[in-house]
Design brief:
This protein has about 600 residues and is mostly beta strands. It has four domains: about 110 residues, Trypsin-like serine proteases (Thrombin, subunit H), CATH 2.40.10.10; about 200 residues, no CATH class; about 120 residues, no CATH class; about 120 residues, no CATH class. The protein has eleven helices and 35 strands. The strands form six sheets. Strands 1-2-3-6-5-4 form a six-stranded antiparallel barrel. α6 packs antiparallel against α7. The longest helix is centred in the middle third of the chain and has 16 residues. The protein is elongated and about 95 Å long. It starts with 6 loop residues before the first helix and ends with a strand.
């Protein structure tokens, strides 16, 4: 029997008491098998398991309804409300894999409503269209930000290095919300009715990367969605119990949206899922109505294929018993514009992708990386030698745009190019900074790819005359190996300060994007932004001298050539952010004729005066 939820269910003022639920009771549930209209199915209570989760009971049920016999309990059915005597009792939320009958676990509505009443931190809200409010996923005051933000010293070099080697897929190493341990897939073990992440418009490498990104969480990336072409008549603008709900992570020329089922409506409040998505408490993202294309059956556990439709609110809470959305709020997404040009001889191909991604300190950076990776793979799927120039710009509210130009060589096509885009790599330290909230207003990436080989791998470093001359520019010889195995020698300039005369220094020659950042540890947002702007591209030489002397980073600035007494005075405070010991360096930057790979270091004497 088909039909939407009755109006009395929308407010749900009188839920069926959990204390009265007994074995053998029967009722009906609401879920969407296809389209947007919920359908009824019958169920029977098996038992009530007390304290199945911390301070939370679980109702076991089974269904002999012909509509559920083929599908079982599927991924995306989570949140489907069950009713006894026309009163809501619980939301479908758990099941077992390889189940021979249609049965599952159901989260009592009492726990979901309790989670929905949880205190929300006051967020920054601006007036929006039609009386709606635009919520920003940041604290409203500096005190709030300091309370909830990461703490401690920020080292941009370490933060960048933590994301992995520059030509590796760093986005799977970006910090995510604490993962909910994925229950065992073995028969007989409980299994959260995992949240399907419907992916559309993604190539295989980018899709697989998303799979790695969300491994260990309840999100299950699957090719189970689309980006449009749903009949207008089937596009609801409001939620209904038993209808599908989607949380878009990315939308536009490609899409990714997690989805489940709406359980309960009370004014602007929407409760869904019956279990967490990340279990990360209060956080903000768009929520939208959704169209169910079909339920894909499986002998293990099925799933529904959906497309996100109209934005109809904002996610505000993600807790043990449910997720909660507020239909009076809207959460802005971050636009990303990706332009690509590929050149092979006289043939030139151009293309563009325009997408929006959710604004979230854990997910913005990896989702942006996946989008750029996907765009590059679409226009250049070949696993061949390529050289690329990437212009990237990060636009932050109230701050001059941060711009980078990167030059990259890759021998496996374009998939590893994305790892060198500094405009993406800096998102993690920027968004997770402990100093002040920032608002990213947009990201632009322009990629020029050529089927060409123009790189050298650094092998050996030699100093003519065996010592450096102080007070002037020296030229050192660098031997590199090209892609075809030939050895070439380039001269790299090194400026040697006169103060180093008579000492022994470590000389390091490397590419700019491999060089250690020459900046003091940041102490506030301006010094963090200044440090980020000092990151170097891969087509310059970075020749660095490391002397034996020690300096101090004081209030975000480098202080060199301090007397020993000053060092002794400051060392007891060196564990603070304001004062820290610092190894001073002397660095010379020079343009290279090709993309540089590798690093070489030697100990060398500086001639005495």
């Amino acid at each position: 029997m088909s039909g939407g939820a009755l109006p009395a269910h929308a407010g749900g003022p009188d839920p069926y008491p959990l204390a009265k639920v007994q074995r053998g009771m029967t009722g009906y549930g609401l879920t969407t098998f296809s389209g947007t209209k919920p359908e009824k199915f019958t169920f029977e209570v098996i038992s009530v398991i007390h304290n199945m989760l911390p301070k939370q009971d679980l109702i076991l049920f089974k269904s002999a309804d012909p509509k559920t016999q083929l599908t079982g309990v599927w991924r995306g059915m989570s949140g489907s409300p069950l009713f006894i005597d026309d009163k809501m009792v619980c939301a479908v939320s758990y099941t077992w894999s390889f189940n021979r009958i249609t049965m599952g676990g159901c989260t009592p509505i009492e726990y979901m409503k309790k989670d929905g009443d949880t205190f929300r931190r006051r967020a920054t809200v601006a007036a929006g269209p039609n009386g709606l409010k635009i919520v920003q996923p940041v604290a409203s005051t500096m005190e709030d930000w300091k309370r909830i933000s990461p703490s401690g010293r920020v080292d941009i070099g370490e933060a960048m290095a933590a994301l992995g080697p520059k030509h590796k897929s760093w986005l799977v190493s970006a910090p995510l919300p604490p993962a909910i341990a994925k229950p065992s897939q073995y028969e007989g073990q409980t299994l959260t009715a995992a949240v399907p992440l419907a992916i559309a418009g993604f190539s295989a490498p980018a899709f697989n990367t998303l799979g790695q990104l969300f491994a260990g969480s309840t999100l299950e990336p699957m090719r189970a969605g689309g980006t449009g072409n749903v009949p207008e008549a089937d596009m609801p603008k409001t939620f209904t119990p038993g209808g599908a709900i989607a949380i878009p992570f990315i939308k536009g020329d490609m899409s990714a949206a997690s989805s489940g089922t709406v359980t309960f409506l009370d004014g602007n409040k929407v409760l869904a899922f019956g279990h967490p998505m990340f279990g990360s408490g209060e956080w903000y993202a768009p929520v939208a109505t959704a169209y169910v294309h079909t339920v894909v059956t499986s002998s293990q556990i099925g799933f529904h294929m959906t497309s996100a439709l109209h934005e109809a609110g904002a996610l505000v809470m993600d807790r043990q018993a449910s997720i909660m959305a507020d239909t009076s709020l809207r959460s802005k997404m971050i636009p990303i514009n990706i332009s690509l040009t590929t050149t092979h001889g006289k043939q030139v191909t151009k293309g563009d992708f325009h997408v929006e991604i959710l604004d979230n300190k854990f997910l913005t950076a990896p989702v942006a990386g996946a989008a750029v990776m996907n765009a590059i793979n679409y226009y250049l799927p070949d696993r061949e030698d390529i050289t690329a120039r990437i212009d990237s710009t990060v636009r932050i509210k109230g701050i001059d745009p941060i711009k980078f130009v990167d030059y990259v060589y890759a021998n496996d096509g374009a998939s590893s190019v994305m790892g060198s885009v500094r405009g993406l790599r800096v998102l993690v330290p920027l968004i997770n900074n402990p100093y002040a909230p920032i608002k990213i207003e947009g990201i632009d990436v322009t990629v020029d790819l050529q089927y060409a080989v123009n790189y050298g791998e650094l092998k050996e470093l030699r100093v003519p005359g065996a010592e450096l001359i102080p007070g002037q520019r020296n030229m050192v010889e660098v031997r590199m190996t090209t892609y075809d195995g030939k050895d070439i020698v380039e001269n790299v300039p090194v400026d040697v300060p006169a103060s180093l005369a008579g000492g022994i220094v470590q000389l390091e020659v490397t590419s700019g994007d491999n060089a250690k950042l020459d900046a003091a540890p940041p102490v506030d947002l301006p010094s963090l932004i200044a440090a980020v702007r000092k990151l170097l591209p891969g087509n310059v030489w970075a020749a660095t001298l490391y002397p034996a002397d020690e300096g101090v980073a004081l209030e975000g600035k480098l202080v060199k050539d301090l007397p020993a007494t000053a060092h002794d005075k400051l060392h007891p405070q060196s564990h603070t952010q304001r004062v820290a010991a610092y190894k001073p360096i002397s660095r010379t930057i020079a343009n290279a004729t090709r993309v540089v790979e590798g690093t070489s270091t030697i100990l060398v004497r500086v001639r005495a005066r």
